[in-house]
């Protein structure tokens, strides 16, 4: 009890000294100091607010050989140069899309990432998914049916990824190589993908408690899977990286990376 | 002549191709090279062979790790072009001077390339002529001589330029021959390791023809049974097998019950298995419903990641202390360099770090030649790279190795068996899995575990007892089948396994089973008649999945087992598309603490993923391979 009172007395003395010290400071300095402090806190808050706004990262993903690297360079430079081979590393760049160079005014640059589609490099995708504002999933419309299982599994993995579900990242299913005559239409591809994902949904959710890698399941129980069941928006578009018809992709990117 | 030479970035964009040589390449050799060689961590190899209908190419490559560029040369395999390595290195040098990350088209490089190519071809021609003028050589020695020439070319280049500057009245040929003689001295002075080694090889081989033949033989033998040099070895195996085959029927004809002197010949049968009725249950065998709990395949693997950073910190000073003596100075300088950020990584810098890594991998039971190849591949990918500041060489090497290991262990294709089973179900065929492996690895035990797991996922399973050789194999499977309540197809002993499997699949189609698990007898990889029988089984039945069962305790033999199994399956297959091993089942994983290297060796040598891991002897002890945990354990 004595200790308590002693400590109380010491605390009172210290607080008195502090108040005296503060009162000793001439008032303009004091006000200036307080104003600075307030400004600093406001500044920090505003930075945090800005950070919460959407990032400008757009991911280009898809199976190996679907045309992502060509699309990347077409979006960046307007031409696909001399062609591409299987990528071993991701292609990244922050730039204004090529067709917007002509536009006047300030346009926000887009951080475009082309992730290799080879199955051995699948782990690279996991690094970029949390920061993605939008995903362009490139599908080879020419060689669609032979690869349909691999394509649907990849898309299923993306759609059930934790970050994608939490952020409700919009996905564009881009059917590439549509300049060739034997390429399938986007409606056909969409229907086939929905069917395959339906099958995947059944087999993967038949597993008990912990599934292989998927954190979430897709769709509504009891109904045939449809892309509209996803919480994030999934749209379909056609494109051709070789000839340069990529308007739908550009619109999609511009729509989700606000200038 | 050269078919094509490409320069592309690691991100996949082609920067430059040779436009003079207009031939389009048949097939897609570059993509195949990237997928099956560079991404498989075999970039330390010398060349890559590609076969397409109508063309047989050989590809050679080199990296420029600092700028992230890859240079690939493609030529016909029948032409043994010698100047390719030299040309690639020269192209690399001159292109890296021109390279600019912003530029995408390098049309002016055509001119430079044409000059370089002509120079290289001319040099090769000259060297060949001067060598032919020299002493007469036998065929094999000529090859060694050509290798020697290729080694000398690098030295030629520099002095050749100096030579053209001099103006003498001598003819060019005379000058060249002088220069070639002068080079042989210069090479020793320059002290280039590879050239000296080539020269030394050339000297040893020209000493006596007998020595050449033996060394050639040894080289071919070390390459393995593959290749024409291996014909001799195959012949010897063939002889052995024919002898064995001749002995076997003779043995079978005369085998009778042994009669010991003191015991009276018994007539009672030796089969002590209990008599069972076909439909009822046996009293002794209990049915194992699903109450053993869920298989560990479905449980999430929990591994602690918090201790990771502590281990790394503890390890770093530890690994530095090992090569203590003369390396104290080296350690201090490396720390200094790490802060300043040294210019470029050289082979000599990477050497000790890689050696330490290789030793560490080998202590974790990775096969020796796999560790060697991996280290070469990591070296090829790091050489010439700029060391970023505040990182030590050992940590860069470790990061690169970790990346490479994750890449190797990540499966190339989907290992979702349930999905495949459902796909087969739709087509109304049973999904056939064949378990192969050497003796005693645990095929029958793990077959039962897989059956249990499949049953838990509401898949109807049937077992096929195609191990008709080992006594007790059919009874073992019968017991498992009774415990799990699944049908079993058996025909007893001494029957042809291929026919038994065929009938089993027909039975499964009839009664609507989803999966057929086929058990085969264990066999050594060198045993020719047994491998032929296995190949016949696989060819006849065309299973959906060929699962190689290997134990985690195996050491360097894993490489031999898997490569021989794959090779026999491909050699002895009748159709054009041979069925190779599709997946690996790793057993006895609970007996190794942290010596998990067998998984890496097996996956590297065969390219097929590990589908299951057996970690105990009860039905629930089956789980999936956790790639990150294995990589962490390997590099600890």
Automatic annotation (TrEMBL), chain A:
Keyword Membrane part of the UniProt annotation: yes
InterPro entries, per database record: P-loop_NTPase, Small_GTPase_ARF, SRP_receptor_beta_su
Subcellular locations according to the entry: Endoplasmic reticulum membrane; Golgi apparatus
Transmembrane segments: 30-50
Pfam families associated with the record: SRPRB
Keyword line: Endoplasmic reticulum, ER-Golgi transport, Golgi apparatus, GTP-binding, Lipoprotein, Membrane, Myristate, Nucleotide-binding, Protein transport, Receptor, Transmembrane, Transmembrane helix, Transport
Principal location class: endoplasmic reticulum
Lipid bilayer topology: Single-pass membrane protein
Similarity annotation: Belongs to the small GTPase superfamily. Arf family.
Name of this protein: Signal recognition particle receptor subunit beta
Organism (species): Camelina sativa
The encoding gene: LOC104747724
TrEMBL record, chain B:
Ranges where the record places region Disordered: 129-328
Keyword Isomerase: no
Membrane topology: Peripheral membrane protein
Keyword Nucleotide-binding: yes
Keyword tags: Endoplasmic reticulum, GTP-binding, Membrane, Nucleotide-binding, Receptor
Protein's organism: Camelina sativa (False flax)
SUPFAM superfamilies with a match to the protein in the record: Domain of the SRP/SRP receptor G-proteins, P-loop containing nucleoside triphosphate hydrolases, SNARE-like
Protein family (similarity comment): Belongs to the GTP-binding SRP family.
Basic residues: bias regions: 218-231
Domain SRP54-type proteins GTP-binding: 609-622
Comp. bias intervals (Basic and acidic residues): 155-173, 185-202, 258-272, 319-328
Family matches, as Pfam families: SRP-alpha_N, SRP54, SRP54_N
Protein name according to UniProt: Signal recognition particle receptor subunit alpha-like
Protein's gene: LOC104717132
Residue stretches of biased makeup (Acidic residues): 307-318
Organism domain of life: Eukaryota
Intracellular or extracellular location(s): Endoplasmic reticulum membrane
Alphabetical list of InterPro entries matching this protein: AAA+_ATPase (IPR003593), Longin-like_dom_sf (IPR011012), P-loop_NTPase (IPR027417), Sig_recog_particle_rcpt_asu_N (IPR007222), Signal_recog_particl_SRP54_hlx (IPR013822), SRP/SRP_N (IPR036225), SRP54_GTPase_dom (IPR000897), SRP54_N_sf (IPR042101)
């Amino acid at each position: 009890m004595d200790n308590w009172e002693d400590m109380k007395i010491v605390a009172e003395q210290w607080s008195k000294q502090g108040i005296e010290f503060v009162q000793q400071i001439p008032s303009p300095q004091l006000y200036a100091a307080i104003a600075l402090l307030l400004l600093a806190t406001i500044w920090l808050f505003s930075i945090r607010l800005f950070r919460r706004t959407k990032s400008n990262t757009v991911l280009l993903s898809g199976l190996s050989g679907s045309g992502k690297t060509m699309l990347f360079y077409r979006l960046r430079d307007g031409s696909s140069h001399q062609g591409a081979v299987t990528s071993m590393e991701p292609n990244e760049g922050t730039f204004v899309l090529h067709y917007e160079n002509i536009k006047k005014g300030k346009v926000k640059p887009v951080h475009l990432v082309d992730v290799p589609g080879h199955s051995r490099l699948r782990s690279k995708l996991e690094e970029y998914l949390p920061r993605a504002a939008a995903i362009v999933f490139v599908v080879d419309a020419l060689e669609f049916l032979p690869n349909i299982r691999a394509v649907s599994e990849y898309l299923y993995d993306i759609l059930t990824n934790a970050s994608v579900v939490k952020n409700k990242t919009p996905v564009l299913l881009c059917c590439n190589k549509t300049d060739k005559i034997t390429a399938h239409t986007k409606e056909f591809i969409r229907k086939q993908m929905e069917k395959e994902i339906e099958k995947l949904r059944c087999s993967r959710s038949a597993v008990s408690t912990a599934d292989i890698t998927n954190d979430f399941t897709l769709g509504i129980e009891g109904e045939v899977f449809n892309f509209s069941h996803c919480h994030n928006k999934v749209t379909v578009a056609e494109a051709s990286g070789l000839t340069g018809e990529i308007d739908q992709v550009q619109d999609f990117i511009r729509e989700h990376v606000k200038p | 002549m050269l078919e094509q030479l490409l320069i592309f970035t690691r991100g996949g964009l082609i920067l430059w191709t040779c436009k003079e040589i207009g031939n389009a390449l048949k097939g897609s050799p570059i993509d195949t090279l990237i997928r099956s060689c560079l991404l498989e961590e075999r970039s330390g190899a010398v060349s890559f062979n590609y076969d397409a209908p109508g063309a047989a190419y050989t590809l050679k490559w080199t990296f420029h790790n600092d700028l992230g560029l890859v240079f690939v040369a493609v030529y016909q395999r029948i032409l043994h072009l010698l100047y390719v390595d030299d040309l690639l290195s020269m192209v690399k040098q001159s292109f890296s001077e021109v390279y600019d990350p912003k530029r995408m088209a390098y049309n002016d490089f055509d001119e430079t390339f044409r000059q370089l190519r002509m120079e290289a071809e001319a040099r090769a021609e000259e060297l060949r002529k001067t060598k032919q003028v020299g002493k007469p050589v036998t065929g094999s020695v000529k090859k060694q001589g050509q290798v020697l020439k290729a080694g000398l070319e690098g030295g030629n280049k520099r002095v050749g330029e100096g030579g053209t500057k001099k103006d003498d009245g001598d003819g060019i040929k005379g000058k060249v021959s002088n220069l070639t003689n002068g080079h042989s001295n210069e090479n020793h002075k320059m002290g280039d390791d590879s050239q000296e080694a080539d020269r030394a090889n050339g000297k040893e081989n020209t000493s006596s023809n007998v020595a050449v033949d033996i060394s050639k033989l040894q080289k071919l033998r070390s390459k393995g049974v593959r290749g024409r040099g291996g014909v001799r070895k195959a012949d010897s195996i063939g002889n052995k097998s024919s002898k064995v085959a001749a002995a076997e029927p003779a043995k079978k004809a005369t085998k009778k019950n042994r009669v010991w002197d003191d015991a009276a010949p018994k007539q009672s049968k030796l089969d002590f298995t209990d008599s069972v009725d076909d439909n009822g249950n046996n009293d002794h065998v209990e049915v194992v419903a699903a109450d053993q709990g869920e298989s560990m395949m479905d449980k999430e693997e929990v591994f602690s990641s918090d201790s990771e950073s502590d281990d790394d910190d503890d390890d770093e000073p530890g690994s530095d202390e090992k090569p203590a003596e003369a390396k104290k100075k080296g350690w201090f300088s490396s720390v200094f360099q790490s802060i300043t950020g040294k210019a470029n990584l050289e082979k000599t810098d990477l050497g000790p770090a890689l050696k330490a890594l290789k030793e560490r991998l080998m202590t974790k039971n990775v096969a020796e030649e796999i560790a060697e190849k991996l280290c070469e591949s990591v070296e090829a990918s790091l050489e010439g790279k700029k060391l970023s500041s505040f990182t030590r060489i050992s940590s860069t090497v470790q990061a690169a190795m970790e990346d490479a290991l994750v890449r190797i262990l990540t499966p190339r294709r989907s290992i979702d068996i349930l999905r495949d089973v459902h796909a087969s179900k739709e087509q109304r065929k049973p999904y056939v899995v064949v378990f192969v492996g050497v003796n005693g690895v645990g095929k029958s035990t793990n077959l039962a575990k897989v059956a249990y797991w499949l049953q838990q996922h509401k898949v109807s399973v049937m077992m096929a007892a195609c191990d008709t050789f080992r006594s007790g194999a059919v009874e073992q499977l019968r017991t498992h089948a009774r415990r799990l309540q699944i049908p079993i197809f058996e025909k007893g002993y001494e029957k042809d396994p291929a026919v038994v499997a065929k009938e089993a699949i027909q039975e499964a189609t009839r009664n609507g089973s989803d999966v057929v698990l086929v058990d085969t007898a264990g066999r050594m990889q060198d045993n020719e008649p047994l491998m032929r029988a296995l190949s016949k089984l696989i060819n006849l039945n065309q299973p959906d999945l060929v699962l190689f069962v290997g134990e985690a305790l195996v050491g360097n033999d894993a490489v031999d087992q898997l490569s021989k199994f794959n090779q026999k399956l491909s050699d002895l297959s009748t159709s054009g598309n041979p069925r190779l091993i599709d997946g690996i089942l790793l057993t006895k994983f609970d007996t190794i603490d942290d010596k998990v290297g067998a998984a890496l060796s097996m996956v590297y040598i065969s390219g097929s993923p590990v589908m299951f891991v057996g970690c105990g002897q009860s039905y629930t002890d089956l789980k999936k391979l956790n790639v990150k945990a294995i990589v962490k354990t390997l590099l600890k």
